[in-house]
Amino acid sequence: MVTITELAEVKIKELIKEEEDAVGLRIYVKGGGCSGYQYGMSFEDKTSDDDTIIEKGDVKVIVDSQSAPMLAGAEVDYVDSLQGSGFSIKNPSQIHLWLR
Length: 100
What we know:
8 strands; alpha/beta; single chain; four-stranded mixed beta sheet
């Protein structure tokens, strides 16, 4: 379903340690009006029964049932370059988006 690179795993793990009650990082898709769909991320302190949970090492990535089909085959990466740093979601069915 969703692939998490090793760099993303390290960064997610680092960020989760800073959150008190976080059990994982939620990735979701939301309507963006004229520009189409947009990705979002937030830390979660609980999961729902219909969530998909992807585990990579000690990291949990949570995807809700409505976002799951739109994220199928996507790769979550973390990029740190001169142009900036942040999470990148590469989705074969959509364009690349950066989340800083």
